[in-house]
Please model this.
Amino acid sequence: MMVLILLLVPVLLLVVLLAVLAVVGFNRLRSQDVRADEALGGIDDRLTRRADLIPDLVDTVKGYAAHEKGVLEEVIEARARVARVTADGTVAEKSAAQGALDQALVNVMALAEAYPDLLAGAGFLQLQQQLAETEHQLSFARQSYNDAAATVNTSVRTVPWMFFSGIAGVRERVFYDAPAGRDQPPTVES
Model:
């Protein structure tokens, strides 16, 4: 009987230890995944903020450049695409939509340079400043998400956490890349 107890104690300790490790692993992976979701939400928030500034920018430029309808329509279309993918798009779709909106904004700023009165207007200058601040915040949000994604990816790929990723329902995250050909947010000069 004593021998049986001596054999069962280490087995029970091992089972308890494995159960504790499983709980720790599950909780670690799930909390890292939640942090990555939260960081991705920060990108969505900044993309939405920037998209919300676009109608004011278009209205301001429209009065000066009514004949440049194509440039303004491009911005409106890019803004609508950002709004669609922000709600339920993938990281790649959000990045692509952001790239299209970046390019459209560059075109609007180039158009605005042809109108010195517009560039000197307080409303336009304020919109430029808000866009520049939002671009900075968006860059920070992207970095924050990528940091959280790297943490998740490291855990999912390393022992012992990789053994719990399936149980926790956590998979590798896709990094949020800057749009093709862009490593910096668009510059907005005042």
